[in-house]
Amino acid sequence: MTAPLHPLRIAAAPISWGVCEVPGWGHVLDAHTVLAEMAALGITATEFGPPDYLPADPLALRAQLGEHGLTAIGGFLALPLHRESDTALTFARDTAARYARAGAEVLILAAATGLDGYDERPALTDTEWDTLVDTAAAIAAIAAEVGLRTTLHPHVGTHVESEAEVERFLADSDLPLCLDTGHLLIGGTDPVGLARRYADRIGHIHLKDVRLDLADQVRDGALEYSEAVRQGIYAPLGAGDIDIDTLVREVYRAGYTGWYVIEQDTALRPGDTARTPTRDAERSLRHLAAIGSALAAARI
């Protein structure tokens, strides 16, 4: 695609090509393939993916991205924030330093349960919740020391998933959110409504479209999240049940100037290639670019 004639800052993430931090998630395409596919679509910025996917050395990481004309945005870091742990803070400090040296700008934090995957979610005590909020604040301060912003990512299978938990976190913390349309909807939050109510708390955006029939099954406990992903709970933007157009217009009108990261989480089978993920990513990119072009034409 040619250079965009619209105001939206569009990026991608390796999860759209099946690259996930969960052990046993699926077949993993090599980084060169995924980054080359992004570049072929005209994408110029990406998140990092799992901690061990791209080079650990920041200079090598920057060089690998540069080979494909990509710049770094930041990455997703899931930690058990509800536990008092110097280990988590040390890991966050090391991660933030690496991100900053690689040229990134945002640390996307999630409140992991401490279990592998996102299919089980033990309840928290009030004390554990308070620790979660305090640890998130401590990590944000650590990241700020090296020039990174921190956002909290409501996510299925974490301790900030449901609408009540999202609202509680917003009340108890001053951290901005990574507004992930898919995870919010699956967790029971209307992402458009949240964007309208908390426009000033949106620090980063992951755009996913979702099949509501499968989302309802996950929310009701009838279907595990990982299986729902394999069944195609996520769709290209504009092909699912989220009003992506309205959401983008709302946040843009409210003054959001950050990244819109296209994500369509998928799990690949052995032998799968990049063909289908790239086709879907191109469809999402064209849909989002059309929204951006309409915004530019309307001079909103």
Automatic annotation (TrEMBL):
Signal peptide: none annotated. Residues 36-289 form the Xylose isomerase-like TIM barrel domain. It comes from the Bacteria. SUPFAM superfamilies: Xylose isomerase-like. InterPro entries: IolE/XylAMocC-like, Xyl_isomerase-like_sf, Xyl_isomerase-like_TIM-brl. This is TIM barrel protein. It comes from Nocardia otitidiscaviarum.
